[in-house]
Each structure stands twice: as structure tokens, then as C-alpha cells.
Amino acid sequence: MTAPRSPAPGPSTPSADGVAQRVDLVLEGGGVKGIALAGALEVLEERGYRVHRVAGSSAGAIAGALVTAGIPARQIVQILRETDYRRFEDGPWWTRPLAGKALAVLLHNGVHRGTYLRQWLAEQLRAHGAEGATGTFADLRCQDPATGTVPAGAHGYRLVVTASDLTAGRLRYLPLDAAALGTSPEALPVVDAVRASTSIPLFFRPVRWRGAGGRSTVLVDGGLLSNFPVSVFDRPGGEVPRWPTFGIKLSAKPEADFGVRNRIRGPLSFGKAVLDTVTGFYDRMHIDASHAVARTIFIDTAAVRPTQFDLTAEEGELLYRKGRKAALAFLDGDHEQQPWDFAAYTARFRGGAGPTPPSGSTRPEPASGASPAPGAGQR
User: Fold this and answer.
1) CA angle 344-251-24, nearest 5°?
2) Which residue in 6, 24, 57, 58 is the catalytic one?
3) Which residue, of 36, 142, 257, 275, has the greatest Cβ tally within 10 A?
4) Where is the short sequence motif GXSXG located (predicted)?
5) Is 221 one of the catalytic residues?
6) How far apart are CA 133 and CA 113, in angstroms?
7) What pTM does this model have?
8) Residues 6+ apart with CB under 8 A from 145
9) Which of 165, 221, 234, 283 is an active site residue?
């Protein structure tokens, strides 16, 4: 896929003295729509933001792996432009007809192997990552800039990805939940965690992880349970953050009532509404809050399907441009929103007791032996 050259960097920086501003990112998944993430990342880089940590699901996990490997955003844009996404559909030849796809689902619980996706990501990380890197999360330990120590939980890693554990019936934060897979963060390959996070149910075969004790765990797309873990790096109790966390969401800004309207007219629409409610409630519990909306870049990508891997160059360029446009509107403001102001954000949302979940909902508690719920820890 080819596209016009990226625009020249803008003149503004997030700090008055021109020093790069540290930022954490939470990137939503969305299959091939992830091209839009690269456009938004490019704008943030041009404006002087330096990514400290990234959390993501599916396409957000891929983008996060590239960013935390030290690949500049502009180079990520170029990598994605040169990628042939049709090769991600690596099912056997007999899966091309609909009957073959159905048979693959019956035999393997998914049509495509996902092997090429893993190989592609591994090649990018080897080609552009730091020399001597192990390829595991041991490379991504994160020190607190003030103390020089490694914080506990999600705050101790530059990359956190989500995966849905079908065996245990719960959300996994990797590498934090590596022990549940019978391994350790230092031994968990980044590409394997990302491959699990991108396992779109039925489209890709699930990842079957066999731990040291022989226990098998089946992992699929993290978006099944949490496609946008926006609070994963938040400080507890509404404590004032030292730097911002930006969410980048691959959908338009929610309406005033923050609801997702499902018109139920029959069994098919009823089933779709049930699936949407089950898979989207946890994320909407957070994005429904005004403090989450205020720090989120919303990119309207409705024109493209997540599994549209036969994307044309024009469609890819549209996603990229939409990502840039949304990020610029977030930072500079437009007719719908004020320019981003970290001081104003902290004064409004983080100066007191901190945000609370919507009425009638509660924050999930971590299961025994699992990672802390999003928001546990320090920033």
C-alpha cells in the first residue's frame, strides 16, 4: 500500500521550554483499522510527546509493540504502508470457499493460522528494535523517572497487552498474568503475547499456551473482554498524575447519553445486541465517564471493517488521514472540543477524590493470583 508523504512536523510542543512531554498511551484494537493509530501517533510525536508506556488490545497491541521497540511513529507509518495485509489471511487453500471456512472453524476454532502475523511482527521488531534485545518482556521493564526503581504491576512495563483467557473465563493482562500461563514475564516473548491479543475469534485460530506444568490455556483477542483498557496506568484514589495518559479509540465520540443503541427487531439483532452488551460493558463502564472522554482521541473508522485485509491504498490512506485529523483536533481543539490542556484536566478530574464508576457498576476485583485491576499502582 502506498500513500503520499507525511506532512512536515508542526511547530508546537507540549511544554513551554520545548522539552519532550512524557505520555502514556492506551490503544484500542480494531484489526486493519489500526492504520489510523499510526496517523495519530505520528502527530503526537511531531508535537514533542515521548511515549513512556503503552497498553493495547489487538491492533493496539501491535502498534504498542512497535512503539515500545523504539520505532519512530513516522517509520511505523511507512512500515504499515508497505505491508500486504492480505498475507495475514493465511488459512489453507481449502478455506477460500465458505464451506471451507466453516470446516476450519470446526476443526481448528478459526480460519486463519495467524502464523504470518506473528512472523511479520517478529521481523519488524528484529529489524528495528534495540541491538541485543531478547524479544521478551524483560526488554520492556520500566523505571520510575523520579526514583529509578521499577514499579509494581502494569506501571513496571513499557507494554501491557490484553488477551481473553477462554480456559479461565477472564481477562489477562500480559505480561502481568504470565504466571497464569505457567511462565514469567522475563520468559514471555512479546510476539506471542501480541499474537494472542490479536486472535479475532473464529477469524484467527486461538493461541494454545502450554505451561511448564502441562496445563493448556486457550487465549483469544483481548477485545472480547476489554478492547480499550483506558484506566490501566491510572494512579489510585484520583491521585494527580505526573504526566497524561491519552486513549486512542477507533470509533467516533459517544453521544451525549454515552449509550450504544441496538435496535432489536428479531433473533439476529437480539443476538447481536447481547454480544455487544457482553463484550462492550467493561470498556463502556470507563469510557462513559467524562474524565475518560476528555483524554481520549476518537477516530471515526466506521467505513472500514476490522477484517478488511484486502484494503485498497485509498482506504489505507483514509484511515491514516483520519488518525492525524483526530489527533490534531484533540490537541488543538475544534468546533466540538477545547484544546488539550493537562493542567486544566488535572484540576477538573484529578484534584479531588477522583472519578468513580457509573451508578450501578463496580470496578472488577482481581482474581486470586491475577494482575491488579486497571488503576492499581502509581504513575
Assistant:
1) 45
2) 58
3) 36
4) 56-60
5) yes
6) 27
7) 0.81
8) 22
9) 221
Q: Which residues pair with 159 in a beta bridge?
A: 54
CB count within 10 Å of CB 123 equals 11
Instruction: Name 351's Cβ contacts closer than 8 Å, sequence gap at least 6.
Output: 240
The pLDDT of residue 264 is 61
Strand blocks (E) in 157-276: 159-165, 170-174, 202-204, 207-210, 216-221, 245-249
Domains, the chain = 21-350 (3.40.1090.10)
The gap from C-alpha 335 to its chain's centroid, in whole angstroms, comes to 28
First-residue to last-residue Cα distance in the chain: 38
Helix (H) or strand (E) holding 366: none
C-alpha cell at 332: 488543538
Neighbours of 253 (CB within 10 A): 17
Burial class (CB in 10 A: 0-12, 13-18, 19+), 223: buried
* Distance, CA of 360 to CA of 306 (rounded, Å): 32
Is-contact 25 248, C-beta < 8 A? yes
Tally of CB atoms within 10 A around 266: 7
Name every residue whose Cβ is closer than 8 Å to that of residue 281 and which is 6 or more positions away in sequence.
none
Using 50 as the pLDDT threshold, list the residues of the chain that sit under it: 1-13, 16-18, 256-259, 279-283, 285, 352-378
